[in-house]
Amino acid sequence: MTEQEPIYRGKAKSVFRSDNPDELIVKFRDDITAFDGAKKDELAEKGIYNARVSAYLFEYLRANGVPSHFVRMEDERTMIVRPLKMIPVEVIVRNIAAGSLVRNYPFEEGAPLDPPVIVLDYKDDARHDPMINEEIIVALGLMTADEIASVKKTALRINDLLRERIDEIGLDLVDFKLEFGRHGDEILLGDEISMDSMRLWDKKTRTSMDKDVYRFDKGDVMATYAAVAERLTGA
Ligand SMILES: Nc1ncnc2c1ncn2[C@@H]1O[C@H](COP(=O)(O)OP(=O)(O)OP(=O)(O)O)[C@@H](O)[C@H]1O
Ligand SMILES: [Mg+2]
């Protein structure tokens, strides 16, 4: 089924058409990249862990009233999703100051952010995903002001739900990135929610349990991804 050419090959996933016009096939590959693709590797099974965690969290969100593009898993690294017309805006929710927030603004790493801070980035690798604001999003015709408000509200609801679950496995949800897209006249949550897109810190040791382990050579990336998947999904 996935022997055909992908309609899109990203840095970590490939997207294929399926026989059903209302379903796309997303294959989570073992590629891992950081710093706009400047650092790249292939780590055996990485795609499986990200797919497993993503599917688990999409199902968890759905059970709590937040729909997404997720339809079902086809195999351990292949997800069937609703086809979305992606909106090139990354919706980032931050609960603790880290990463670019600390690099670009005078926050101390690890400082709690209460209420959470939403950051919007324009998704464009060639431009290095610059921060965007609501006026620019409207001026570019990417979303209306009402749509932005509704997406932000959904992002905060997702934050509450994810924090609750991630807290139970002894981790802090430091921040995470969401992507949304259009399906008919609805805007749905798309893409993935995984160790590539969330920043997770162990509550006791404050050590990273996410892609920062890869970015900054902090330890065994695959053991970390496997541990999060195991704690969250039991597999
Ligand atoms: N339901 C969906 N329908 C259509 N496209 C989707 C859907 N969900 C995610 N996508 C898109 O599929 C692609 C997934 O590939 P991937 O995440 O590897 O690439 P990328 O986002 O271009 O690169 P990177 O995430 O490394 O910046 C992304 O462009 C993402 O926006
Ligand atoms: Mg991506």
Automatic annotation (TrEMBL):
Span of domain SAICAR synthetase/ADE2 N-terminal: 7-231
Keywords for this protein: ATP-binding, Ligase, Nucleotide-binding, Purine biosynthesis
Classification via CDD domains: SAICAR_synt_PurC
SUPFAM superfamilies in the cross-refs: SAICAR synthase-like
GO biological process: 'de novo' IMP biosynthetic process; cobalamin biosynthetic process
GO MF, any single term: phosphoribosylaminoimidazolesuccinocarboxamide synthase activity
Catalysis: reaction(s): 5-amino-1-(5-phospho-D-ribosyl)imidazole-4-carboxylate + L-aspartate + ATP = (2S)-2-[5-amino-1-(5-phospho-beta-D-ribosyl)imidazole-4-carboxamido]succinate + ADP + phosphate + 2 H(+)
InterPro entries in alphabetical order: SAICAR_synt/ADE2_N, SAICAR_synt_PurC, SAICAR_synth, SAICAR_synthetase, SAICAR_synthetase_CS
Pathway info: Purine metabolism; IMP biosynthesis via de novo pathway; 5-amino-1-(5-phospho-D-ribosyl)imidazole-4-carboxamide from 5-amino-1-(5-phospho-D-ribosyl)imidazole-4-carboxylate: step 1/2
Enzyme Commission number: 6.3.2.6
Cross-referenced PROSITE patterns: SAICAR_SYNTHETASE_1, SAICAR_SYNTHETASE_2
Family the entry assigns: Belongs to the SAICAR synthetase family.
NCBIfam families tied to this protein: purC (TIGR00081)
Protein name (record): Phosphoribosylaminoimidazole-succinocarboxamide synthase
